[in-house]
Amino acid sequence: MEKTIYIRMRNRSQVRQEGKVYIQDIAQIIADDHLDKQIRVLEVYQVKNEDRNIVVVDAMTVIKKITKVFPDYEVQMIGPSQTIVEVIFKKRKFSLPAFLLIWFLLFFGAALTIMNFHEDVSMQIVQQRLYTIITGKKEVKPLLFQIPYSFGLGLGMVLFFNHFFRKRINEEPSPLEVEMFNYQQDIDQYVIMHENKESMKHIDDH
């Protein structure tokens, strides 16, 4: 019978403050049923206060833990070589004044951005000319275009972000979600590279 344990490290995981990180939290396991249950509950790391909010667990740490308990088995790693563990701290109490302040800043900031854009592209002049071309009359406030355009602008924002309040319109990710995903990937890569440098420095010091 082949004595091999297959481990696939997860990209990210979460653990509560001062909690313990087990192999089942950071990796997928392929092994015999009796081994699978024992491997899952092996403790890999104990979160400390000085760890702040990010801990990187390397695949070598997982292999050492498994081979120490099961020395007769070979461990094969598949996929990523590290898992980023995010430490979840206790939730802070909801602050209504802070929420209102942030809401007003975002609301008026977005409004000013749209107004400045319309001023740069001379949107009002364009609408006035379109109104004159279609009706043959001059109008300072062509509401025939401005009112539908305002509703269309709001609808366009809803379609762009692919959300109406908490409800998703379709399964496709919005451009914002794609950008946030790419940003998170870059952050994860930086954290892993930084952790590797710190680990090498620690080894050299010893």
Count the E strands: 10
Largest sheet: 3 strands, mixed
Tally of alpha and pi helices: 7
Mean pLDDT: 82
Element-by-element helix/strand order? EEEHEHEEHEEHHHEEH
Task: Give the strand content.
Answer: 15-25%
Rg to the nearest angstrom? 27 Å
What is the structural class? Answer: alpha/beta
Low-confidence stretches: 199-206
Q: What is the count of distinct domains?
A: 2
Order of strands side by side in the largest beta sheet? 4-1-7
Overall body shape: elongated
Distance between the termini: 41 Å
Helix content: 40-55%
List key phrases describing it.
206 residues, alpha/beta, eubacterium ventriosum atcc fold, 2 domains, three-stranded mixed sheet, 7 helices
Write the layout of secondary structure elements.
Elements (H helix, E strand, L loop, with lengths): L3 E6 L2 E5 L3 E3 H4 E4 L2 H8 L2 E4 L7 E5 H11 L4 E5 L3 E7 L7 H25 L2 H13 L7 H19 L1 E2 L2 E2 L6 H31 L1
Parallel strand pairs: 1-7, 2-8
Antiparallel strand pairs: 1-4, 3-5, 6-8, 9-10
Can you describe what's shown?
This protein is α/β, with parallel strands linked by helices and 206 residues long. It has two domains: 4-88, eubacterium ventriosum atcc fold (Sandwich), CATH 2.60.480.10; 96-187, no CATH class. The protein contains seven helices and ten strands. It has helices at residues 23-26, 33-40, 59-69, 96-120, 123-135, 143-161, 175-205; strands at residues 4-9, 12-16, 20-22, 27-30, 43-46, 54-58, 74-78, 82-88, 163-164, 167-168. Strands 4-1-7 form a three-stranded mixed β-sheet. Strands 2-8-6 form a three-stranded mixed β-sheet. The protein is elongated. Residues 199-206 have low confidence and may be disordered.
